[in-house]
Amino acid sequence: MRVLLASAEASPFAKVGGLADVVGSLPLALRALGVDARIILPGYGFIDHQAYGIQPLAEFSLPHRLGTTAIQLYICDHAGLPVYFLQAPPYFGLEGQVYSAWDWDMQRFIFFNQALMAALQHLSEQLHWRPDALHVNDWHSSLLPFMLASHGAADQSPATVLSIHNIAYQGQAAGGFLWQAGIHGRHHPDLQELGLTDNLLGIGIAYSDMIATVSPRYAEEIKYPYAGYALAPLIQRRSDDLRGILNGLDCASWDPATDPALAANFNSDNFRSQRPANKRHLQSFARLLVQDGIPLVGIVSRLAAQKGFDMALPALRSLLTSREMQVVVLGTGEPELEQAFWQLEQDFADQARAFLFFNGSLAQQIYAGCDIFLMPSHFEPCGMGQMMAMTYGALPLVRETGGLADTVSNYDDGDAESGTGFVFQWQEAQAVEGTLSWALDTFHNRRSAWQRMQKRAMQSDFSWENSAGQYINLYKRAISRAQT
């Protein structure tokens, strides 16, 4: 089976969020199971061709309503995985970051879909390789199912699978940009009835052979307006073709037994003796009191409204005032949240430290050094932070939503015969404060239960193997649908 994954992001080449982690690791897992999986990305200007051994493959011109654009197709081998890059200034090839202003991004990614259509033909002609399934991801590449259905020959077009990583980002109000690019009308009856003909993600949902999202719980949540927004009715109509497949981790990279960023390596057998060195290192680096008995709360996150920090900040302020605890934050994002965490550090200088940047090694040190990993998201399609934290022996404190509900089981408030963390439901600061207070009490008073949960969390299987097998079944179903 041949599968091509199209995406705006893929690690390690271009990463903003979890989309990059998934697209960068899923194809490797598919190849390990015998699938000829490959990736195609925009050829961003910041990607270092020399560092990754990226080589030119083909050149062609693409005529469109605004003129003719020269496109260069590049290729590299990444750990045995072929990765293609489409470079076409001014759309792709000059920029210093993945995303820019909304109106320019709409034009750029609509063009990416058009360029990829042309690239499929060149891959077939030059490499004699044509995918059986095209796996598109989020709104950035979700025009492709429509374009293939409209222009492709039925016996040659690949089946299409759309993955929704976060339905909150939909590519709405694209009508003028689609007209400008020469994309003809979308006459799917569901799109017309629901007023979604200008919604890029909605177009992908309507025209894809199969649809996936990144956790089973999220697949159910997006059928309703509180999580699916304007696309919920369309999701309901495609519910028979929707699958929730939990994201996996690259367990070779995320392994506390071998991670070179850690002060001390450890595993689920020796973490009791070996892991504390990482906490001491983190406390020292953060200029906090170095003491094993003080519970340390860690946050590694994009600082955005979705992540629930409007609930977490009042809870942290209250508990830092009344309880013995420490907080270490790593992340960037919305200016008002960055300011709020900076102020938290100023007000509790002996207990809190906010690193308002991103550093991968420091993130790993926080996972390995904190006791409680705080992730109180309002919604979370899958979430990777809680899985990384559990793998590194930190107990997550999460809201019961999306992939958080699928991956974290609540402490039984006893001997920890069950549980890998602490879970709350209500979207209120009091719920975060009460649950965090419960976790602090457990840390102090039930150490054997705490360590039993740590061991269970570290032994959780978050590998891609099971999920990759589910994707293979999804591709087979999509191919079967496309052939009927």
Can you put this structure into words, describing what you see?
By secondary structure, the chain is an alpha/beta fold. The protein has 2 domains: 266 residues, Glycogen Phosphorylase B (Rossmann fold, 3-Layer(aba) Sandwich); 188 residues, Rossmann fold, CATH 3.40.50. The protein is 42% helix and 18% strand. The strands form 2 sheets. A 9-stranded mixed β-sheet has the order 3-4-5-2-1-6-7-8-9, sandwiched between helices. It has a 6-stranded parallel β-sheet with strand order 12-11-10-13-14-15, sandwiched between helices. Strand 6, helix 4 and strand 7 form a beta-alpha-beta unit. It is globular, with a radius of gyration of 23 Å. The two termini are 18 Å apart. The model has no long low-confidence stretch (mean pLDDT 96).
Quick synopsis:
This protein is α/β, with parallel strands linked by helices and 484 residues long. Helix content is 42%, strand content 18%.
